[in-house]
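Quick one:
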Amino acid sequence: MQRNKLLFATALTILLTLGFVATSVIGYFVAEDSLEKQIAEETLPLTSDNIFSEIERDLLRSILISSLMAHDTFVRDWVVDGEEDRESIIRYLAEIQAKYDTTTAFFVSEPSRRYYHPDGVLKTVSRANTADAWYFRVREMNEPFEINIDHDTADPARLSIFVNYRVEDESGDFIGVTGIGLAVESVARLIETYQRRYDRSIYFINREGEITLRGSGYDGPISIQGQPGLARYATRILTSPSTEFAYERPDEGTVYVNTRLIPELDWYLVVEQRESAANARLLNTLIVNVLLALGITALVVVIGGWTLRGYQRRLESMATTDRLTGASNREALEMLFEQAQKLARRHGQPISLINLDIDHFKAINDRHGHQAGDQVLRELVETVSAQIRETDTLCRWGGDEFLILLPDANAEDARCSAERIREAVARRNRRPEGDGALTVSQGVAQGRPDESLDSLIHRADQALYEAKRNGRNQVAVAESNGSRSPATATRSRG
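Output:
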């Protein structure tokens, strides 16, 4: 099995690597034959995709963090309980900000309209304040969150990208807005990185064509309408979600342009490259593509391996667990018995088995139906599981019959465990519709050297029949020679 997994992972890695690398190399030779088409339709869009992916990654991470905050039971319970301890929510926001390295973290409560921040309560939002319009917009919307660019309440001079996430109580009623903010400067740093890497001009414009964010190397006009040669394409840029074209810039020659709308920011990303720079960077682009392909390959292999392991664990659980009660099933008991028997031979430890049966279970099904009987079985498993050791195994053998395997336990140890179980069941479990306490009868048997599981079950089964014949709600122990001696405790005869 392990070898097959290794072969699959190796084959997948080779195929993905060859596919990605082959695609990149083919693209390189095609670019040599048609540089203009390469730049206009592939190279610049790749840069745009990379920047867009980086922004999307940060936004998705921010959305995830905000979603965790919005669904955190601490936040909801704190609001529902009347916001009594303000310091607790302030500490919570400070920890979020520090843990995830965000520019800010906030929570605005609907009952009090207070704006909570790691620095304290900054204000009370109001419809009369235009700066608070975002809160009432989120309050009325149907979507769980929004992304907007706004000035930070804690630092009005700082422009931030906010994820505003609705917070609802368990009934679905709106109780506030929470989220985090990212400094726009982080996008500016991303621009600087790509400009240095590819020698391209990168900037953002708003719906009016005004340049909202640019790298340090940009020294042109404040809007695209003022750029010589580009102004004629302004309408085309601002009315299309994405476009690519080339234009002539005085004294600089041909400039290739790629634009795309970033809907989350409501800005257009503009990437420009001069023809001469494209020639110099073509090989570097190939290298970047190959590295990116290797990274994606590694990610796919890791995710694929993780997914396969998850499915394998789930299948193993399904194969060894009883679906109704969550107890182990026959296959699991047989495997664990073999392991316990090997340890017993090696260390000289005893093994014991308890056969447990619900008294008058058929009457429960006949009077109240199988659904009531199923509920009794589930509750019984919960009670029994609380009384046995972690090393013990509770197995549903069939119907209302259960087996409990007790490694490193002799007959007396098993009898004591059975008595605890019997008392706990009678004390905690009730029959449907107030029919009285639920009771169980149990048979205990200690394993003989090299005894098979079937033989051990048979002897415990015979002890169980003895407990039933003696009036139920009791424990009977099978002697090693095959006889049985009932052990009883204070009980209600069933």
